[in-house]
Amino acid sequence: MSPNANHVHRAAQVAEPGAAVRVVPVQTRPPGVGEVRIDVEATGICGADIGTVRNPAPATGFPVTPGHEVAGVIAELGPQVQGWEVGERVTVGWFGGSCGHCSACRTGDVVHCPERKIPGMSYAGGWASTITVPAATLARIPESLSAAEAAPFGCAGVTTFNALRHSGAGPGDLVAVLGIGGLGHLAVQFAAAMGFETVAIGRGEEKRKLAEELGARHYVDTELHEPGAALRELGGARLILSTASSSKPLAELVDGLAPHGRLTVVGFDGSPLQLPLAKLVMGARSVSGHLTGSPADTEQAMRFAVATGVRPQVQTVPLEEAQQALDTQQEGKARFRMVLVPGT
């Protein structure tokens, strides 16, 4: 048993509908069969956490502890857990467990299990100094990544990494990333590291230098140019990865796809996409969505990042300032991932 098992831990929680996030003392939940308890060292704030905080009727009831980008150290092992040891550094991401017996699970597509669990939604999440999760959700952290750097890989990192590497684009292909925020700044780095001719699409000339520093070969300022038209001038994109939260630019963006090109959406606001089908049919183009990855995918994303120098740019904030950090995220002022640090 970890020396912290009997320690009074803390969690940033929402106690009732519309309430602010407050840090309160909590007891650890001992790990059950197949579970582990983690002493959390860093936990990211994702755009989806805003929905968790605002949900007036969460499935698990109140209080709610959000958070699905978690990095820490295994503190306790539950019965029948094999292959893991106390003291190992691990992450837990959007994938928080699956049934293990459906067709998706049996074919290795665990993230699309109809009974998939999500930390912060299915059980108490990572905005805390302790979290108890299924051992099947764990990904090992490479030595050269800090906890604050590793935490975003459980969601933002693995999502952009998988969307790019499974896109069908090859080295030298023109690949565009819409949005240079929490997801986009990682996507631009990954795209450049994978050998794509990378185009970053953002708003304002002040982002041009940042885009170049992240590895983009081209930058399109949407205040000056229609991005789809700009991509056509570059020859057309094999892939456009949309990481922005607005669906408004997507219909015009499709015009920037090369024949057989794909628009993949990982960031969205829930509004409908109105798109003339002729734009897809006449160019054999496609539109797809993409959701996260497995723990094995997360490990591979981190190993790739270590090998190529890709890193999330994070702002660390004490757990006690979770509400202020969430406000910063909502106001679009985060550069680029807000990461809560529980401390001791």
UniProtKB/TrEMBL annotation:
Domain Enoyl reductase (ER) positions: 18-340
GO CC terms of this entry: cytoplasm
Family recorded in the similarity comment: Belongs to the zinc-containing alcohol dehydrogenase family.
Signal peptide positions (record): none
Protein name per the record: Alcohol dehydrogenase catalytic domain-containing protein
Species: Streptomyces ferrugineus
Top-level division of the source organism's lineage: Bacteria
Cofactors demanded by this protein: Zn(2+)
Keywords carried by this UniProt record: Metal-binding, Oxidoreductase, Zinc
